[in-house]
Structures are given as structure tokens and as C-alpha cells.
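re the bet — no i am not wrong, look at it urself. input seq straight from the record:
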Amino acid sequence: MAEAARSVIARVAAVMRAIGDHEPDGASTTGIARTAGLARPTVHRMVTALAAEGFVDRHESGRWALGPETFLLGSMAAERYDITSSAGDILRDLARTTGESAFLSARRGDETVCIASEEGSFPLRSHVLHIGLRMPLGVASAGLVILAHLPERERAEYLGRADLGGWGECHSPNNIAERVEQVLVQGYSVNPGLLVEGSWGLGAAVFDRRDAPAWALSLTGVAGRFDDARRPVLGEQLLRAAHVLTSRLR
């Protein structure tokens, strides 16, 4: 019985996340099914039931979007989990002083989700990250720096179960483990265009009161802005900003 309940909850969560991934335009039933990895008839029954409870809405176009109950619950949870107000001036300062786009990501289980951003002044930008984007730990600079600062046993367990084959050979467990070692030496992570050619990123971990890496600050931009001479400078700026934000949260 417990296993069945977990299965139902996992499917509902997958459907809600799939809808959230398509905000604000909404998602079709077929699109939700594809993203969630579920059969279309199953998804149709689930979104219909969720709509009856107010957790999803249906646009006139027939596409599904998050509903008012989701907003109300999110507003109440924000008091515990939303750190964007504390990080706002830090993101703005990073974007202003570096000229690159600055982001704040939060750990959610085996993933990171981007929750805030600030555009830099440099006219050429990397468009890999955006608010709401979820990525596995170890992928992109935010997920890599969070993974690197987890306890060694937890990190090894994750790399043993994670299915990152779709992200290319550069994200094999062995390759990620090598990059983790680099993070532990220099303190910040580097993504040298592994997701999109020519788009680089740096990340620094932000810790909660239990000293766990719960968030990450990151900078992204075009490769020419992240050369050998500038990367350490940007890395130090990120580390200082992450230390300030960690201190505030404590």
C-alpha cells in the first residue's frame, strides 16, 4: 500500500513539474505526458482531477497551467524557502561588477532549479539558464558545485544512481568526479561550454544553517569572457558573494 501511494504521488509530482516547466504559456496534455514520461490517458485523468481541486487551470486554448491553489501553497512555503529577497542585491552587484548574467539556483533533491536571475551589461549573453529551469546535480556550474560540497558518501551514492546518459559522455560519473575534485581544490565550479558550445559558467555554493550546500550562485557568459586570466577573478567574486549570502541566511 505504501509503495502504491508513493507511486501515485511521484506521478502527480511529475505532472505538476511538467506543467510548471511550460509556464506561463501552458502545456498540452500530450506535452505533459511526454515530459512526465506517462501515458496520455493517465495524464488526462490526473490533470482533470487536479483542476477540480484548483491545482491546475485550463486555458481557453486547451493548454494546462498551474492553478490558484498552487499559488496559495507556494506563497505560504515561500516564507521558509524563498531566499531571493536576501539575494537580490548580491545578484545585482555580481551582474553590475562583472557584466555577466548572474543566477541563484536551489537544490531540490537530485536537481537544481534556477529561482532568480539578473542580466549583465555585456551585450553578448549565454541563454542556457532561465528561471524555473531544472537540471540534474553535476550538470552545469550550479549543480556541480552543490554536488562537490555534499558529503563524500552522499555524492558517491548519487553518481551511482543518476542517469545522465542523455547529457553526453562529458557527464559520465567518472568525468563528473574529476570535475568535483577540481571544485574542491579551487572552491568554485567551472562549466567550460559542456552544455552549449561557447557558453561558459562558474558557480559557488551557498550553505544553510546545517552547513549543507542548499543553493548556488553562478555567472554565465560567452567563452571569450571566461579566459584563463579572468576566471580566477570571477571565481573569487563569486566566492565572496556566496559567503555574504551564507552569512545572511545564518
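see?? The mean pLDDT is 90. told u. also The CA atoms of residues 160 and 173 lie 8 Å apart. so pay up
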